UniProtKB/TrEMBL annotation:
Protein name: Sodium/potassium exporting P-type ATPase 1
TM annotation in the entry: 144-160, 332-353, 359-382, 820-841, 857-874, 903-924, 944-965, 997-1018, 1030-1049
InterPro entries per UniProt: ATPase_P-typ_cation-transptr_C, ATPase_P-typ_cation-transptr_N, ATPase_P-typ_cyto_dom_N, ATPase_P-typ_P_site, ATPase_P-typ_TM_dom_sf, ATPase_P-typ_transduc_dom_A_sf, ATPase_P-type_domA, HAD-like_sf
Top-level division of the source organism's lineage: Eukaryota
Organism: Lasiosphaeria miniovina
Reactions performed catalytically: Na(+)(in) + ATP + H2O = Na(+)(out) + ADP + phosphate + H(+); K(+)(in) + ATP + H2O = K(+)(out) + ADP + phosphate + H(+)
Keyword Translocase: yes
Span list, region Disordered: 1-46
Amino acid sequence: MGTESDLGVEGQTEPPIRSLNRSVANLLPDGPDPSPSPTLAGTFGTDGRASITTTFESAAIFAPESAHTLSVPEVCALLDTDAENGIDNSEAARRLEQHGPNKVEGARGLSLWTILLRQVSNSLTLVLVVTMVLSFAIGDYIEGAVIAAVILLNIVVGFIQDFRAEQTIQALYALSAPTCKVVRAGRSETVKAEALVPGDLVRLGVGDVVPADLRLVHSVNMSIDEALLTGESLPVSKYADIILKDRDVPLGDRTNMAYSASTVTRGRATGIVASTAMATEVGKIAELLRSKGTTSDEETRGMRRIFARAKRGLRVVLGFDGTPLQVSLGKFALLLFALAIALAIIVFSVSRFKVTNEVLIYGICVAVAVIPESLIAVLTIATALGTRAMARGNVVIRKLAALEAVGGVTNICSDKTGTLTQGKMVANKVWLADGTEVSVQETTHPFDPTAGTIHLNGEVLALAATEKGPSDELLPSSVLLKGFLETIALCNNSTVTKSETSWTAAGDPTEIALQVLAMRFGMDKQALLRSGGHRLLAEYPFDSSCKRMTVICADETAGLGACAFTKGALEAILPLLDASDEQKMQIVAKAEALAAEGLRVLCVARKSVDSSIFSEPASVVSGAGGSEKSATVVAETLLDRTSAESRLAFVGLAGLQDPPRVESAAAVKKCQDAGITVHMLTGDHVKTATAIAREIGILKPTSAAANAEEIMVASAFDRLTDAQIDDMPHLPLVLARCSPTTKVRVVEAMHRRKAFCVMTGDGVNDSPALKKSDVGIAMGLNGSDVAKEAADMVLTDDNFASIVTAIEEGRRLFDNIQKFLLHLLISNIAQVILLLIGLSFKDTHGISVFPLSPLEILWANLVTSSFLALGLGLEDAQPDVMQRPPHDLAIGVFTRELIVDKFVYGTAMGGLCLAAFTSVAYGMSGPDGLGHGCNEGWEVSCSVSFRARATTFATLTFLLLVTAWEAKHFTRSLFNMLPEKYGGPLSVFRTVWHNKFLFYAVSAGFVIMFPVIYLPVINRAVFKHDAITWEWGVVMAGVVVYTAIIESWKAVKRRFKMGAASLRVVTGGDA
């Protein structure tokens, strides 16, 4: 326990030392299998090509899913290939034509048609289309053209934003394996990965991306990182000679296979292509994402299937399948449409259904007044601007609606690797044989030896990280520490260098971490070699069977002969130590203590050897990773290694970890303050996950017993039924050893609890959960193409803090949507009240006189209100935006407070507009009264009605301008709206100036009103009103009364803690 190869101390990134995940003895037949497959018996013919005899004819059909259960000769026979020479080019060309190119089509992106359809798939747009058609039908071409322009604006802005986002995603897609090495007709050549076919013989080396699913033929010290496919954080050792008996062995346990999109981290191998393109395991997941879903039995035939498809299509078109806001607005639009029809019927009924042209126009005016024509355009533009802000925050929004949706998140399910952590190994704990302890803290870059601080027995040391060689000043009175650093630096094949802009590294992640640690003290490998005191004599490379590495170096300057430097897994080195049982128990105890902190533990040892034994230069040995290199080393034999690695002197233990990102703890705390629960779903071991979770604050730093119900291993969670999961008081905060199925079940469990969740992921195996979650977030740097395709958002920096930024931006957008919804709906309610009561305003012929002309209504809705609403959409986030619980998803954007406020303010605005109209129309009524034919154009008799209409229009405009500033906050007074920033009696001026776009929108609305009222021809012929004089007193009186009503209502809400005033701010203790 606690050793480097023990699953109990698994870290994040691939180690150079690792044991099998399971006993090889359980996987291999007991000795030579006396009874091969009952249906297959593979042999090699004289020409070197495998042949096969079958018990049943059907057995000759090759199934890639069972390749791991077949021997290499059997696979060669079924695929008609050769294990040494592969197939020839002509056969490869024939098979390429038969099977097609080796391309996974999962990450195909969205078509232009799909992006375009997304813009019109909502009820509000459809209602506007109906309104536009009616306007053209009655000959009101100006109104119809204006609404058509609004619809076009919404489509264009939304299309451009989604298209740009899709282009960004496509740019993030990485080529999985552009080229590969293949053996054809005995000759090695490099071909495009697309040209691979089943039966090809592929060569793999360190750093290669596996181009297809391969059945390994030969392997030397082979390890492959399959994290993107299986979620396994550590590389898996591969053995070509293993034959598995069970066809249903999990992918991560098929140690004789190499799967497409995985990466070779150590060794070399050759393998036969078993499947390509969509037939690979990666392709199967991609195909799952491309499918449109399955139908149930009752939908499989006839009219039921047609009806089910039509129903699904209708829900999509109406916007009922989407985010909570999309669904709310879809239902709201249908409600408005029904209300518009009802109001038109009321108008027609007043005229006893004698629908003349004027009655029809008036009815449509009332119907248009209830529909916020600019809402969809303002929403689209505000969201598009939000996505641009998020792009600067390293978040690419693939769908405009996703930004609003992420603001309602109640739970975040985050991966650990590279999201909460840095994704690279760091050696941050050292324990030496004399009890000396060294720790590295606050490191911000895993390759930078100057980052962070060094603590030696609790005291802070200065950093060296120089190229001047070892620094004695940094190693006071610690000869053992010098020996430890010397060992990890020399027994190491990685390189760490500094470029002009940053530090870079090449080699195994664990060796890089150890080399960086040595460099912190100025004792890196290059510095030691430059000093002239060390010369490599021999190297015994790491091997998965022995789990250790040893180098022999001469120490010429000190005259100490030669030393053997060894590092490896504790259980591999402990038996080789020249130490008492008591000392070994102490070492094991310390290793287990380090392991309990989530660290991976390496043991470091050394001893003096006779340099004369290694004086003869040898030709070539196989170095780490299977590369061949010349050196003054001896040919490795079992006897040499056994001798060199016996009776070693223990030096110390090194604890390695994929450390949390510096900003992760603060981001998690911010989520908890916002009432958001953060869950860690990782493929790592439970100890590693628990240690990181405690360090960043997902788990409280209490005893393990107190956290027992918050920490689970995925296998235990998977055994629970849905009912048992639902009976749990809360879902576990840490789930270790997660599989794709586990993540999907977690999402489903959250949905049953009515939670709204974000799921992050980078691997192909994460794609189903990303698609299932409410908002899927993929990693842009290290994520797979298929994961990006399934996601709604992509993080370009793979940083958890960016998710929190997205949530904050989503909450800001949600608040602002409520603000401009309130503003737009107040205007609509006021106009409906005005026009309905205005039915009683009759001219001399008994015809109802419009209190507002149709164009005045459109001007108020589309020109004045639109820019004011857009300004509200650009409001900064409120100071407490991340200190309050998520909004109620069941209620959505139309909260009780918003509904009550819109009716209070709308009624007040409508009443004051009525008062303005009646004050002028009946306060200065002449012998002609309201005139006649005044709805159609100007006549001398229409002077009073035209002046009354202008007064009403001016009053409505001024009240809309005031509402824009009052709607900045639902409860705070306009005269003390930002007490955190501004105070004093003049703070109102700084408040209105704070949002400059809104200030200019209000100013423009004020200025442009005057030419509309006073310009000849424009006023009478177009807007059907006339210039006013003394009536401005009526307008200003209306503004004063309206402001007093709003301020009084807000004061009542504050006094009785209604609406937003009742929201409890979440504190860190609550979270």
